[in-house]
Input
Amino acid sequence: MNSNAAAKIPKCPACGANIKFLRIRSDKPFPCPACDRQLMAPEPYHKRFLLSCRILAAAVAAAATYKYWLSMPRTDAGVRHAFAVLCLTYVTTSLAAVFFGSIFVKRIFPPKLEDYEEYSKQAHYTAL
Ligand SMILES: [Zn+2]
Output
């Protein structure tokens, strides 16, 4: 009955223990609570997550600026204000999206955890 939900819980690739969502970090490695091995979510997972947050923030910022643009005076100061509204909305929305997103996204799209120690031995990316 519950097998679908259980299958979604990420497991430690080293010892097979279920990893609680609260423990999972998408931005950096974290230790497995059972065997203490360093684990990580795949790098594209975090990148996709950040990209989604940025798209969301850009959409919200554009909407807020557009609303402001309709009501503001068409002056230099007004344009500067609109730009400030755009930047502020973008920054606050993306911070909020990353904060709340990191709580919910991993529940909706559980990452397949990787063994960080194995992963770091392989050359996946060339350092820039
Ligand atoms: Zn483990």
Remarks:
- The mean pLDDT is 87.
- The first strand starts at residue 30 and ends at 31.
- Residues 3-121 form one domain.
- The radius of gyration is 20 Å.
